[in-house]
Specification:
heterodimer; A: alpha/beta; Rossmann fold; six-stranded mixed beta sheet; 14 helices; about 35% helix; B: about 475 residues; mainly alpha; 3 domains; 19 helices; about 70% helix
Amino acid sequence: MKTPETAPPIHPLRLLGKALLWFVIFNLLAAAVPPDLGQISGYNLLYPGRQRFPFGENPGQSYNLSLFDLNAMFKSLALDGTPKAANEFRILTIGDSAVWGTLLTPGQTLAGNLDARGLALCGKQARVYNLGYPSLSLAKDLILLQQGMSYHPDLIIWLTTLEAFPQDKQLSSPLVANNPARARALISQYGLALNPRDPALVEPGWLDRTIFGQRQALMNWVRLQLLGVLWGATGIDQYYPVRYQPAAVQLSADQSYHALTPANFEPGKLAFDLLPAGYAIAGATPILLVNEPMLISSGANSDLRYNFFYPRWVYDRYRALLAETARARDWQSLDAWNLVPASEFTNSAIHLTPKGEALLADRIAAALPGICR
Amino acid sequence: MTLAQTLTFAGLALLGGWLTNTRSRARAYFLLTASVLAVFWLQPALPIRYLDFWLPCATLAIVWLSWALTAAPGQRAVRENWLSGGLVCALILLAALTRLLPFDSILTASTPPQAWELILPAGLLALAVFALTRWRRGWFLTAGIAALIGLLILQKSPQLGAAASLFLRAANGQAVGPASGLDLRWLGFSYIAFRLIHSLRDRQAGRLKDVSLGEYFTYVIFFPALTAGPIDRIDNFTKHLRAPAVLDREQQLRAGRRFFVGLFKKYVLADSLALIAMNSTNALQVRGAGWAWVLLYAYTLQIYFDFSGYTDIVIGMALVLGFNLPENFNAPYRQPNLTQFWNNWHISLTQWFRAYYFNPLNRWLRTESTHAKIQLPTPLQVLFLQVSTMLLIGLWHGVTLNFVLWGVWHGLGLFAHNRWSGFIKPRAEAWADTPLKKNLLNVSGVLATFHFVALGWVFFALPGIAISAHFFQILLGFNG
């Protein structure tokens, strides 16, 4: 062993060179064998799991953030840390921001509402978990459903709306675009009419797979873990502004919808083929397909449009197609499109107030016993 | 400072250290240039028009006036001072002329005013410097110190700051509604003022050695230490400034280690902890005592890693430039009592207060007051000294009731330790007759001190009494 007196002097440049070499080696290793950091989580261990997926733009106020690491996202959920009891009837709700619960506390969401009812279903105690995520895309729902199936649900409540159906929205959802391998696997496994080489899919280059290229993802993982402390400490996972812009009720006279017009509309331009893929993923697990409530405006041009999203003609055709598909395939479905009065929407034509959410939960709860039959 | 600013400064320090390694004169002008430009570059944008240009100018003017007050008569007309003065003027003019660039200013936070608007203030400054050098009186130094303290109070008091903002906004023809004390964020002024007061007070006491204008400028606004210290002594600083900077292998390694450790502490540990540290928002949201303690511990560690990390970065950069700046932190959270904590936390600030407040007052209380008819008993003297010193340190951070409470908290803690240790020390030493007991005693002292300091941060970090009381209730399990 060298004593300090006999140790050779350290040359600063040589030291820097060695540090650089190790940095390069670690980066190459990380690119060759990407570590799955998402599997490591402090949630359900150091602090409680979240009631819904991490999502948010302002961590300082919402104690939440958006990231694309699906494993890390699932690991942060209370669902991940809750072993299924023998008498548990496990229900997963999937869908968009209306299911996730924009402007709602976890307890006010559909899942929170249903769970609080303590429903007994098929002789078991129902427990309802929120797997909604704020973006409108059936492909995104499928990816979450696929991973959600590993939690052995007894029922899936899949809420959707027309805005999740346009072909151009399927792969551009950030969660899908940033998980290109999963998106491609889905396309090939279920023969979806989506382009696996769609430029919307973010293909990481060699450099992007190194630690240096993954620095943002790494930082997001660290922040997700740290924000778990604030989630545990406050129970807050969303910023609730005192005031917000209410959903538009004075509408434009524009009748087009994602380049569709009454003249060129074809059912094939909506991604109805993704619905059977969902049922295939669920396998023997039943799905209750819900056409979610939307704002029916009575302002300017409400004779032409229902709301900001939908011209009346396209939404009516979509509803008819959805009902027809469900009937033809014998799917359990619920059309709640006009269930909630206009006064119970918040900042979007699909975001409900707590009262609106309770109305929807009443309707769904009433339909649930039919699942057991 | 942002990471980009820190790395820019590190690059600048490396360049300066390499270019001017053994050339003292070149190094002096390099440091003066970099420091003057840094005063403009680091000043954050302010909502009052042109204030983010005028405040750096005011900093430089105040430094110049302070030099005129402190310089020995023989020093003032030296050619070197004219060169340094000319360089500072040219750099201010350069900052003003960046207005003419076709893109956003790279040197100032927002577009500077027209260059001709500098003429009147420059003329007034020249007159003031001339007057000070021609008709200097002994009370000028006292007036200078008082003026600096007045400016500090103005900058640190939210109410006075808001009033000043109101006045400046009205004078500028801007909306007065949003006036706030934050409108007067004057980069590094707390540290600048303390360096200046140190030099003025040392001149009063006849301790200040001759310092040229360039050296004085560089000492006060030395770019690595501009924003958050440490507060060096002028004689120590000029000793290094005048000696050739020898950056040998040892020095390079030491500098590199301090810099990288500092970067990690500040931008990885402190910035991560900042996400979960106690603040005015989560203090009202936290549910339960356990979580409140977690937030408090996070803040306690964050403030240490942030400040000590910054100090490491500064010391590392200064080493490259040939300066041995004083240490500011020496494992403060590992100290067994509060007195030791304050000997190892923000050392350069506490030494400043010790030199210019605590020791003189202590001497006065022990000597002068003995001639007075009413003499304070020793415990009361200690209480007054400890509490008033800590109160002033609190007020240095901000003229608010919460900083007063933070100062009083520590002042009373130091007094209690002073009294307690006299009583307990012999008994504790008698009890701790084995290494295990000694360790136990030390560990319990460290834990007690750490928690006392941590609880004090509640006053420091939160903006008002009500929210602090609320958070204390949660910590103690009475609320939430």
